[in-house]
Amino acid sequence: MIALAGCGGDAGRGQEADRGAVLNGMRSTYAQYADSVEISASRRSQIDYMLERNKQGKDVVESVLSDNVITADEMNDVERQAVGCFARYGYKINVDYWLAKGGGIGAGNEKTMPVGDPKVQDIQAECESGTGYNILVNAYYSAYYNPDDIDLDPYRFQCFVEHDLVDESMSYDEFNRLRRESKNPYIGNPQSYGSPVHDVWFSCTSDPLHNISNSPLKK
Question: pLDDT tens for residues 91-107?
Answer without folding.
Answer: 999 999 999 888 888 88
